[in-house]
Amino acid sequence: MLEQIARLRRSSAALDSSPLTFDGGGHYRIEIPSVETLAAFDIAVQEAARREVPIHRISQGSGIMLLTDEELAGYARLGVAHHIEVCLFVGPRAAWDGASPSRATAEGAAIGARNVGLASLHGALSDVYRAVDHGIRSVLVADEGLMALIAKAKTEGSLPADLIVKASALMGISNPYSAEVIHRIGADSINIPAETSLPELAAFRSVTDGVLDLYVEGPDSLGGFLRYHDIAEIIRIAAPVYVKFGLRNVAPMYPTGSHLHALAEQTTAERIRRAAIGLEHLARAGTDLKVDESCDRAGIPVA
Question: Which in 5, 191, 195, 280 has the greatest CB count within 10 A?
C-alpha cells in the first residue's frame, strides 16, 4: 500500500491531462457560490448575460431551513427558467444549532458543519425532503452520515434518483482517498481544498472519477487563495470540474437575512465579474478546453 501511494505521487508529478469529461463532452462548468437571496440570483443571471458568462450552478450557504416556502419555490423557478442548477445548503449544522459546545474550541473545530446527534440529522434530512418538494434537485452537504442517509433514500425511492449531492468544502476532503470514500458514500460533486497543488490535483483525478469542484478564488474563511493564472491547468488536469468563483475581503454573511441583502447582492455581481476575469485568463491560455454545453444536466430544478 505504501508503494501504491509512492507510485501515485510519482505519476501525478507528470501533470497528465484528465481523460474524463462531463457527459456532454465539456471539461468544465462554472459555479457561482454564496447566492443567498432571490434578488442576488436575479442579479447573477443579468450580470452573466451582460458579461457573457455561462452559469451552470449557483450555490447557497445560509441553508434551506432559513428559506420560506415562497423563496424555495422562487429559487426553483429561476433555476428552471435559466437552466441553472440550484444547490442549497442543508441545515442545521454544528456551528449554529447549539448541539456541540466543543465546536467553539480549537480542537472541536474539526466538527465543522457536520450534524451532531440524531436531532440534527433528522432536521437536516427534513430540509432535503422539503427542498425536493419545492422542485430543488441539488443539495449541499457537510456530513458523511447525512450523505449516506440521502443515498439510501434515493435507492429506496423516497428521494429522486437524480438528486445531486454536493460535498461541501467544509468537510475538509484533503486527500484523494478521502474524496473517493465520499464519492462512494454518495457525493456526486466533491469540493476539494482551494490550495490543492497541481500534482495533488492530478492525484485526486487518478483516484476518483467523481466530479470535482474547486475555488479559483476562495473566501477568506477558506484561505482566500486567488488562482486565476492556474485556471487552464486546473481544468486540464481535473476535468470534469466545476470552477468556483468566490470572493476575498467580504464580511461574513452566513446566515443571510434582510439585514445583509445589500451585501449579498453586491458581492454576487462581483463574483460574476470574477468569473469573467477567469474566463479571460482561460482564453489567453490558448487551450482547447471546452465548457460543458449539455442541456440535460442533473441538478436543475423541476417545475
Answer: 191
In a domain, 10, yes or no: no
Closest CA to 35 of 266, 292, 194: 266
Which percentage of the chain shows pLDDT scores above 70?
A: 93
| Number of neighbouring beta carbons within 10 Å of residue 228 | 15
Domain count, the chain: 1
Q: What's the rounded Cα separation, in Å, for the pair 279 and 177?
A: 30
pLDDT at 279 over 60: yes
Nearest by Cα to 86 from 112, 61, 58: 58
Q: Quick one: pLDDT at residue 51?
A: 98
Tell whether 11 is covered by a domain.
Answer: no
Structural domain contains residue 12: no
CATH of the domain at 63: 3.20.20.70
Range of the domain at 72: 18-285
Euclidean distance between the first and final Cα of the chain, in Å?
49
Residue 245 lies in a domain: yes
Residues 6+ apart with CB under 8 A from 267: 34, 247, 250, 253
pTM as predicted: 0.92
pLDDT of 11 higher than 60: yes
